[in-house]
Every structure is written in C-alpha cells, then in structure tokens.
Amino acid sequence: MFVPLSVLEFRDRAAAFFGDKIGVVDGDRQFTYREFAERTHRLAHALQVLGVKASERVSFITYNTHHLLEAYYGVLEAGAVLNPINIRLAPHEIAYILDHAGSKVVAFHRDFLPLVAEIGPRLARRPTFVVLAGDAGGIADHGYEGLLASASNEPLQPEIDENAMAELFYTSGTTGLPKGVAMTHRELYLHSFAAELGLGFTEDDVVLHVVPLFHVNGWGTPHFLTMVGGRHVMLRRFDPAALMELVQRHSVTRLLAVPSIFTALLNHRERSKFDLSSLRQVIIGGSPASPALVRSLEDELGVQAIVGYGLTETSPIITLAQPRRVLTDAEPPEQRQQRQAMTGWAIPGVRIRVVDADGHDVRLDGEQIGEIVVRGNTVMDGYYRDPEATAAAIRDGWLHTGDMATTDAAGYLLIKDRSKDIIICAGENISSVEIEIAIGAHPAVLECAVIAAPDDKRGEVPVGLVVLKPEASVTEKELKAFCRDRLASFKVPREIQFREALPKGGTGKILKAELREPFWAGLESRVH
C-alpha cells in the first residue's frame, strides 16, 4: 500500500518510542516527546480554528525557541506550509517575503513587536498576528499559549501529497530581493534519511541548536534528530559563554555551526572553566574551514571535527567530510584532518559534479576549478512563484550552485569560492578562501575576510580585513610577509586592514557583500 512520505512520521515515532524522554529543552522549559507531540497537535487545531486552509502559509518570526520547533510539525499537521523568517533581514525584506508568500498567519516572539509593528502597515494584506511568549493586544490578535490551551490535543489526519510544498525558506537576498525555496514533503523526508546515514545520530545524542532554525531547518536537525529520539536544546542568541554553559549543563554531544562561532569558542578566555567533555563531534558549515581550525578543534576539545556543505535549495546537506577508512588506512595521519577540512563527498542519494564553463567535468586532480552542480531527490523543484530564477538555476536537470570547487580522485570536493567572490586579477582567478586560510594561520589572527577591490591596472586585487585575537599584535607588513611564505606573489593582498569586528549574518557567516561595498562605492559595476 502506498503511504505518502511525510516528516510527521518522525514526530509520531518519537512520541511512540521515546514518549517519556525529555525531547526538547528551551531555557527553563522542557518537554517530553509525548508532551511535544501533543503541543504540535494543539497547534494544528489552533491554526485550523484561525481559518488556515490546506497549502496556506504560516510564518514565524522568532529565535530558536520551542515554538518554532513545534511549528515544524504542527503547521504541517494542519495541512499548511511553514515559512520561518530570517530575523536578520531588513523590515522591507520581511514585508516582501510575507506578501510574496501570502502568509495567512504570522507568529512572532514578543521581542520582535517593534519590528512587526513597522512591517504591518507595509503589507498588502493583513495576516492574523500571533504573539509567542506573550498575550494578545496591540497588533497581536492572539497569544500562542492561549490558542494552544483552548485547542484539542487529538492528532489530525491530514491528506498528504508528498510532492506538495511543506516548507518555504527565503534565501538571504544578497543580490536583489529574497527568493523563496519551495521544499516538498518528499524532499524533506528523504533528506532526513540521507543526512542520518551520513551523520549517524542516535537516541543518545544531545544537539544544541546553534544554527538558526530559520536557516533551512538549522541543517535539517529538527527532522532527523527527532526521528532517532535525540534531545533538542535551544539556543536563542549566540554568546560563547552561554553556549558553553548549555553544553556543560545538558551534556551536549554534537554542535553544528559556522567557522566564526567555533573560532570564538576556541579563543574565549574562560573556556577552561567549562566542562565540554560531552562533545563528541562538531560539524562546520556555512563557510569554508581551514585544516588549522579542524586541527585546533580536535586537539583542544577532543572531538571529531568535520565539514559539511549544502544549500537552502538542497534541503540542505549534500556533502560531509567524514573520513573513509579505505583512505585513512592508506594515508599518513595528518591527511585525515586535511580531508576533514575539505567540502566533503556526496551523502547517499545525491549526485554531484564539478563542471567547467562548457559543462564538462573538471579533472579529478584537486587543481582544476569548476562550478558545483547537483541533482537528487532532495533538490528543490524550483523557486516559489519565480520561473525565471528557477530556469537560471536549474539547467538540464542540474542545480547550478554558484560555488566554485575542485575535486580529487577520491571524490572529495574543496570549495575555492563563490563564483561572485572569485577575484580576477590581471586575468588570473584568485580564490579569496585560499588567502583567508593563509592569513588565518597566523597565531595573532582571530578571523578574517578577503574581498576584491578595484584596481586601475589589474582590474581587481585582493584586500584582507582582519580581526586580531585579544591582546595579540601583528603589523600589516608582518602579515604580508607571512602570506608570501604561503602564497604566490600575485595572491598576496594589496593591503590588509584591521577591524574591531566583521559583519555577520544570521548563522554567524561573514557578510562579504557588505565588506565589499565601500571599496566599490560610486562605480557602476562590481567588476572592474
């Protein structure tokens, strides 16, 4: 008998087999998986009472909270589509998303009341507003807890079309307005199994949600961690000390985050005061990582550190740099950490190629750079209500990622840059990531970014923007000399500027577009 694929199965499984286990922890609140499931049933009923019909969109504007985790199941149980909003976006961008998605209900954390009050008048059509952790009043038509308290806790039995949209995530919109990525029940379900095969989570795992859940499920963990009965611990705002305190208090076993967050942990002055011995694995994503970072994490935290890679358009994970014994048994030990810092190899169910400008596969030599293209059952069908963007991204059945990489004979990819971040200097393609890794190897450097700046003679030249570790010092001249020992001369930055901090997005990823802007101000083109 045909049974439609739906992630609701994972919640029901957790409630049946791990019902008495604490499944969700959010500050002082905690819920067993049975209680969590009942709350999602109540949410589904409440949404229907509010008039939400099949396939209508329900948006959430909040931190990582138990409310948003509940929405991953309750909204779908109501037959609706979940749309988590990136809280780092500007008000006009959020207003555009809500109008473009046609959101019927918007739930928001009370901390974002000023933001929602500013957005409300901009909307073409007023949705029903629900305040989380607060009472109705003002722009809020209902309080979340009040709605749940008056709703039934009996499960609904929605008619699931596995090929219908279940979740709608909007990309960050670094160029133009955000684009909506429509994800189906089938894609999310199959991604959970593929990611679980790649990562091997178990009921003993405790995961701290560092990656915001408005970023494509925080890498899919709301689904596959629930599937195996692991524990979710919510982190509302990133702070190194708060993160380490939660790791210690809840014996967190795995962390998923961007390189800058792990760098902040490693360099925190009070790290030695926390017991982080429960950690077994950290997964680095969002930006390329250096072998030095992998080595430091393993040496100083006693964990396995690997890189993962994916996009909103791919549900998201498509590669993991898990070591393979068939390789590690035949290679020197240091090569293992080198590989774990690479972009990784395809998880099950995903097919990946690296192609040149003519669409031909690059050489498997780890040298020739091409664009990563991907296909599989976890890749989006297209952008929501945007056929032109869909046609530009998906060609001949392959999603073109815009990420430039090499691949070796073992199938390990290594991202060299985003296509827009490649620096073209006097006809030479320079990887900003390669330079960042070289600069980041200096013991005084906390974090850095390399961007292209205009140059009348060479077109573009690399410029390094550096944040130093507390109480560390190094001069621009010394850093350039350090780079010359590690890079070809034409790759050494023309200049290096020191900054107090670098701008970051919702996941902690450095915003290179914002850093580039002052260098290109007044020029019509961003290519010189």
Write the layout of secondary structure elements.
Blueprint: H1 8-17, E1 22-26, E2 29-32, H2 33-49, E3 57-61, H3 66-77, E4 81-84, H4 91-101, E5 103-109, H5 113-119, E6 128-132, E7 142-143, H6 144-149, E8 165-170, E9 180-184, H7 185-199, E10 206-209, H8 216-228, E11 231-234, H9 240-250, E12 254-257, H10 259-266, E13 281-284, H11 291-301, E14 304-310, E15 317-320, H12 325-328, H13 333-340, E16 345-346, E17 350-355, E18 370-376, H14 387-393, E19 394-395, E20 398-407, E21 413-418, E22 423-425, E23 428-430, H15 432-440, E24 445-455, E25 459-468, H16 476-484, E26 495-498, H17 512-520
Parallel strand pairs: 1-11, 3-4, 3-5, 5-6, 6-7, 10-11, 10-12, 12-13, 13-14, 25-26
Antiparallel strand pairs: 1-2, 8-9, 14-15, 15-16, 17-18, 18-20, 19-20, 20-21, 22-23, 24-25
Task: Give a quick rundown of the structure.
The chain has 528 residues and is an alpha/beta fold. Helix content is 32%, strand content 25%. The strands form six sheets. The chain has a nine-stranded mixed β-sheet with strand order 2-1-11-10-12-13-14-15-16, with helices on both faces. A five-stranded parallel β-sheet has the order 4-3-5-6-7.
Describe the model.
It is a single chain. This protein has 17 helices and 26 strands. The chain is an alpha/beta fold and 528 residues long. It folds into three domains: 8-188, 3-Layer(aba) Sandwich (Rossmann fold); 238-418, ANL, N-terminal domain (Rossmann fold, 3-Layer(aba) Sandwich), CATH 3.40.50.12780; 430-520, GMP Synthetase, Chain A, domain 3. The strands form six sheets. It has a nine-stranded mixed sheet with strand order 2-1-11-10-12-13-14-15-16, sandwiched between helices. Strands 4-3-5-6-7 form a five-stranded parallel sheet. Helix 2 (33-49) packs across helix 3 and helix 7 (185-199) packs across helix 8. The radius of gyration is 23 Å and the shape is globular. It starts with 7 loop residues before the first helix and ends in an 8-residue tail after the last helix.
